[in-house]
């Protein structure tokens, strides 16, 4: 009798203790987030930006940096996560498509403006930016479609094989782009109409970054409308949840896969053109942006558009705030903060914030 | 019976290969031994850690070359005295080796623990992120290295002549090969394979699944660290660019070319890669079709693409398939009756 009682009373306590243990990482993450916020708001005096209460201008600028960069991250990562969500294909060539679109767009812009060097922003009309963007993104989309049709259609479900195939394609594409476009950095020029500065809280801020955010929001809204309000989008969302069922309902999933890969590659291309206008591109940019897309989707959860938004915002925040709010002599350690973010998210949710086990 | 005969045949083959390799410094040119073969041994050990994780643990890692680099950087930081960059601890070189291996193993433990709840593609992507973040850590933190890296790293006097480095690589390769093979039959290796095949069932049997994955990753990091120490001895310097995303991919490519589920494949892939990298540009017709050093990556990428399209098992897998097909008609009749009862018993 007493033994049963003891066991009965021991059961809930151990269970509670286990539950507490499981919640431990979550509490640690919450504490770290609060500590970071307090640091930024009140304590960060010896840093390049200064504490937010004493120097609100710098804080607003950093916040704008974070949100605008997050916009670019979202455009670059959304295609990656869209493709993975439906097809379980990790497209390692995503960065290559990003870079290819950027190079093509730069070429087209040079041809449209009629000069290959020292293009001034005032010479660039809105069309001289939008048309190259669409051309570059379309080239990336067509190449992505070709890759999917030739290399990925017949081995569906062999995830690792697909990842390695796209990896090999990345190596070839990077080398061929080096041959075609050379090793020098290239840059898209923003349209003259948005190349201005405006003043906010006593700080000058570039309108082009806000414009970039606007394009990203537009892309996000269109993507949302496409996925939620059209029948094809609904098929894609159904396919993310249950591919076999979609197939069983008689829908031609091969066509849906092709369209998704086309759109995903198009988004990679759009990201590439935005990135080329924002910071320029050079050989190696493909790897950097594959990394950025990976970090965003690992944080947010693979295959989830919501996750891509959340991941972009978190990662963008860390990228903007870490160099500004670390003590000056430790600014080099900003990359460690990115790693810490990744570690904290994975400790709490191994499949990302909005992810589910495959 | 058949199993035993195959085993001895394999062992004889291995012993013969080792004898030939031991005699290599007397047979081949110094360049071939000190450049091609030494590099094959070092990279083969590093690629074997990828095979180990993939074959027993089902984890394809892109972070192994990072761990090679961590060991190299740590050796450089510990052994160099009065250099331009780094910690300049000026330790005894053998103490520096211990230091480098301990740090590398600890880093592997932390990274492995963080990745231990992910598998498959998530693991691949996470380790890719590790590799890139590791590159930035060494490129940005000037106390450890900075973009210029650590130069003029001396190897211990015992390892002075380059050919001794080759022998060290050979000994390490044989030990790692036999060790990983033996581990596959030991309790830890068997449990790890169980975790690979069905983590939920293993968890329900009471095994700590994340801990097994973490320990496997730690062991792979330890071995990669050994390879890294040899590598930095051979190179004499190390910089962040040498552990960037490109070399990390190339190490995986070696494992893939050789066959990612065969330990032999690690060294085979490394050998094919180093051979191609060294001699491809010397072929007479290659220049004509535009494949020079700069286009080398296109060739390697195309080869990997071809292998992945034709056979994901790599060269070792293709060889095994050919071997089976050649042997089948000849050996099927005599071995089948003998093999039946022995395998049943």
From TrEMBL, chain A:
Topology relative to the membrane: Multi-pass membrane protein
Record localization: Cell membrane
Coiled-coil positions: none
CDD domains tied to this protein: TM_PBP1_LivH_like
Molecular function via GO: transmembrane transporter activity
Bilayer-crossing regions: 24-44, 59-84, 129-152, 206-227, 256-281, 293-318, 330-348
GO BP field: amino acid transport
GO cellular component entries: plasma membrane
Presence of keyword Heme: no
Swiss-Prot/TrEMBL keywords: Amino-acid transport, Cell membrane, Membrane, Transmembrane, Transmembrane helix, Transport
Family to which this protein belongs: Belongs to the binding-protein-dependent transport system permease family. LivHM subfamily.
Protein name, entry field: Branched-chain amino acid ABC transporter permease
From TrEMBL, chain B:
A GO term, aspect molecular function: branched-chain amino acid transmembrane transporter activity
Annotated TM spans: 40-58, 65-82, 94-114, 121-142, 165-183, 214-234, 300-320
Keyword Membrane: yes
Cellular component, GO, one term: plasma membrane
Main location per the UniProt record: membrane
Compartments where located: Cell membrane
Membrane topology: Multi-pass membrane protein
InterPro entries reported in the protein's UniProt record: ABC_transp_permease, LivM-like
Keywords: Cell membrane, Membrane, Transmembrane, Transmembrane helix
Annotated protein name in UniProt: Branched-chain amino acid ABC transporter permease
Organism the protein comes from: Phytoactinopolyspora halotolerans
């Amino acid at each position: 009798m007493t033994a049963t009682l003891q066991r009965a009373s021991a059961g809930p306590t151990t269970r509670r203790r286990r539950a507490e243990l499981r919640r431990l990482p979550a509490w640690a993450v919450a504490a770290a987030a609060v500590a970071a916020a307090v640091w930024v708001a009140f304590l960060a005096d010896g840093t390049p930006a200064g504490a937010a209460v004493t120097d609100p201008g710098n804080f607003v600028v950093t916040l704008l940096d974070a949100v605008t960069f997050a916009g670019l991250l979202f455009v670059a990562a959304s295609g990656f996560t869209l493709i993975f969500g439906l097809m379980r294909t990790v497209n390692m060539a995503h960065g290559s498509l990003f870079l290819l679109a950027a190079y093509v767009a730069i070429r087209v812009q040079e041809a449209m403006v009629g000069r290959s060097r020292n293009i001034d922003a005032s010479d660039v009309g809105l069309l001289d930016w939008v048309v190259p963007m669409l051309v570059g993104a379309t080239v990336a989309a067509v190449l992505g479609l070709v890759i999917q049709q030739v290399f990925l259609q017949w081995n569906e479900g062999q995830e690792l094989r697909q990842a390695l195939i796209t990896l090999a394609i990345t190596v070839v594409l990077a080398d061929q782009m080096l041959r075609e476009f050379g090793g020098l950095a290239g840059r898209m020029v923003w349209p003259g109409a948005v190349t201005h500065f405006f003043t906010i809280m006593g700080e000058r801020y570039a309108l082009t970054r806000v414009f970039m955010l606007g394009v990203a929001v537009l892309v996000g809204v269109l993507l949302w409308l496409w996925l939620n309000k059209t029948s094809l989008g609904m098929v894609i969302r159904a396919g993310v949840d249950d591919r076999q069922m979609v197939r069983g309902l008689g829908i031609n999933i091969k066509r849906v896969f092709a369209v998704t890969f086309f759109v995903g590659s198009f988004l990679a291309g759009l990201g590439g053109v935005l990135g080329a206008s924002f910071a320029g591109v050079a050989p190696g940019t493909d790897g950097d942006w594959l990394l950025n897309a990976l970090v965003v989707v690992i944080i947010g959860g693979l295959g989830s558009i919501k996750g891509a938004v959340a991941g972009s915002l978190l990662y963008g925040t860390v990228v903007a705030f870490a160099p500004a709010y670390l003590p000056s002599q430790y600014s080099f350690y900003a990359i460690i903060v990115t790693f810490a973010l990744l570690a904290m998210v994975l400790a709490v949710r191994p499949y990302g914030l909005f992810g589910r086990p495959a | 019976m058949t199993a035993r005969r195959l085993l001895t045949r394999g062992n004889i083959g291995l012993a013969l290969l080792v004898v030939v390799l031991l005699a290599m410094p007397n047979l081949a040119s110094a360049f071939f031994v000190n450049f091609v073969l030494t590099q094959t041994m070092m990279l083969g050990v590093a690629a074997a850690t990828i095979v180990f994780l993939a074959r027993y643990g089902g984890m394809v890692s892109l972070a192994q070359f990072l761990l090679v680099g961590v060991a190299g950087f740590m050796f450089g930081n510990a052994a160099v005295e009065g250099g331009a960059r780094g910690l300049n601890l000026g330790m005894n070189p053998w103490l520096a080796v211990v230091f480098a291996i301990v740090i590398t193993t600890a880093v592997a433990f932390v990274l492995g623990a963080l990745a231990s709840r992910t598998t498959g593609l998530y693991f691949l992507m996470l380790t890719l992120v590790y590799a890139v973040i590791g590159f930035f850590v060494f490129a940005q933190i000037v106390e450890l290295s900075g973009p210029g890296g650590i130069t003029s790293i001396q190897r211990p006097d015992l390892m002075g002549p380059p050919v001794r480095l080759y022998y060290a690589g050979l000994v390490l390769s044989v030990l790692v090969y036999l060790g990983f093979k033996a581990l596959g039959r030991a309790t830890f290796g068997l449990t790890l394979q169980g975790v690979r095949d069905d983590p939920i069932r293993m968890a329900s049997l009471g095994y700590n699944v994340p801990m097994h994955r973490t320990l496997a990753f730690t062991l792979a990091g330890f071995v990669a660290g050994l390879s890294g120490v040899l590598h930095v001895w051979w190179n004499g310097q190390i910089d962040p660019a040498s552990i960037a995303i490109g070399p990390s991919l190339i190490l995986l490519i070696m494992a893939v070319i050789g066959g990612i589920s065969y330990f032999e494949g690690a060294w085979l892939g490394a050998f094919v890669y180093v051979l191609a990298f060294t001699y491809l540009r010397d072929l007479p017709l290659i220049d004509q079709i535009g494949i020079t050093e700069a286009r080398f990556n296109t060739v390697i990428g195309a080869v990997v693409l071809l292998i992945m399209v034709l056979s994901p098992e790599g060269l070792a897998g293709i060889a095994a398939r050919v071997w089976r097909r050649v042997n089948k008609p000849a050996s099927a009749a005599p071995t089948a009756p003998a093999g039946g009862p022995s395998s049943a018993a």
